[in-house]
Amino acid sequence: MKPVQSTLQKWLAENKNFQENYAKIKAEVLQDPDIKEFLLHHPQISDKEINRSLIKLYEYKTQSKQCDRCKSLQDCPNMLKGYSPILQVVGGEIHLSYEKCHTRIAYEKEQQQQKLIQSLYMPKDILQASIQDIDGSERGTAIQALINFLKQLKSGLPRKGLYLHGKFGVGKTYLLGALANELKKANISSMLIYMPEMVREIRGSLKDDSINEKVEFFKKADVLMLDDIGAELQSAWFRDEILGSILQYRMMEGLPVFFTSNYTLNQLESQLASTKDGVEQVKAGRIIERIKQVSREVSVEGSNRREND
Ligand code: ADP
Ligand code: MG
Predict the structure, then answer these.
(1) pLDDT greater at residue 306 or residue 294
(2) Taking every pair of C-alpha atoms in the chain, what is the biggest distance, in angstroms?
(3) Whose atoms come closest to the Cα of 194: which ligand?
(4) Which regions of the chain carry the CATH code 3.40.50.300?
(5) What is the per-residue pLDDT for 49?
(6) Is a pLDDT exceeding 60 seen at residue 221?
(7) For ligand 1, which residues put their CB under 6 angstroms from it?
(8) If you average pLDDT over residues 215-240, what whole number do you get?
(9) Mean pLDDT on 211-215
(10) Which residues surround ligand 2, an ion (CB under 5 A)?
């Protein structure tokens, strides 16, 4: 008989512990400020339903909500890193689900952008460019136009960027790098692309069907920057189907584009007209019209910085 008795005693003791623990957990759960508020908003929830869902409520209590207990995604203490719990009532029952927290959403967005930007060539010194380093007196109008653009951000993203043209080496690309860094501080994403690289990238993705995905990205970036537009545009298909459709979309949506070029807009028009498929003034004119809708032409003056390197 002894083993049975001791087993029974043990069971009773454990059961008592269980009941004590259960009561303790319930008290803790009901003390939690977020759960208190949840129950306050749902007075129809019965005590029976609370008892039935105690494990869910306890899980909810232990999890960080929208990053309130962590600084970065790495620190996220939740069972599913980067997912935040939500309590809901569906048909009188408590439901627990998870949604991506804002840190995870921002992280995924950055990863996705990083992936594309990395594949598009930009020298390191350009990506580290700072607006403080720019000699304002020398590059007067252009730098003033950039500063104006940044000032306008307070009341939303301006509809027009700039078309910066000037001689080789005056620092046009550097200006874009500095602008991208300022935009980052304002939490605005920008996509800075060296045009010849973009042409290569798009041609390359003909093989793996990722063209649409890439074009969508160029269409929708907050601020698009096309560096060195001009010489690479020898294909009518690229001009009309890729560049044309990106600019058309951004024009309709009022999204700004920045360009740099060695050509003025008038000179660019002749460049765009003559592709290896022939001379097409009308089609070139159409692109120029769109460029004017998404940017304002400004000349960048100064000496060639590369000569002093
Ligand atoms: P562009 O695009 O007009 O041909 P870049 O922007 O490439 O000229 O500038 C040429 C070189 O001068 C680059 O190495 C760049 O880092 C440097 N540079 C341009 N502007 C500045 C500046 N304000 N301060 C420091 N370096 C600069
Ligand atoms: Mg350049």
Answers:
(1) 294
(2) 105
(3) 2
(4) 115-308
(5) 94
(6) yes
(7) 125, 133-135, 168-174, 260, 305-306
(8) 88
(9) 87
(10) 173
Please name which of 259, 101, 112, 121 lies closest in space to residue 189, comparing C-alpha atoms.
112
Determine which residue's CA is closest to atom 19 belonging to ligand 1: 171
Atom of ligand 1 nearest to the CA of 125: 16
Task: Write out the DSSP string of the chain.
Answer: -HHHHHHHHHHHHHHHHHHHHHHHHHHHHHH-HHHHHHHHH-TT--HHHHHHTHHHHHHHHHS-STTTT-SSTTT--SSSTTEEEEEEEETTEEEEEEEE-HHHHHHHHHHHHHHHHHTS---HHHHT--GGGS-TTTTHHHHHHHHHHHHHGGGS--S-EEEEE--TTSSHHHHHHHHHHHHHHTT--EEEEEHHHHHHHHHHTTTTT-HHHHHHHHHH-SEEEEES-STT---HHIIIIIIHHHHHHHHHHT--EEEEESS-HHHHHHHHHEETTEE-HHHHHHHHHHHHHHEEEEE--S--GGGG-
The pLDDT of residue 123 is 74
Q: What is the pLDDT of residues 94-134, one digit of tens each?
A: 999 999 999 999 888 777 665 544 446 677 777 777 777 77
Helix (H) or strand (E) holding 299: strand 295-299
Joined together, the tokens standing for residue 233 give 């545009």
CATH superfamily, domain at 115-308 = P-loop containing nucleotide triphosphate hydrolases (3.40.50.300)
Q: Which atom of ligand 1 is nearest to the CA of 174?
A: 6
The residue with greater pLDDT, 158 or 4, is 158
**What's the whole-model pTM score?**
0.66
pLDDT in tens, 128-150: 777 777 765 555 788 889 999 99
For the CA of 230, the nearest ligand: 2
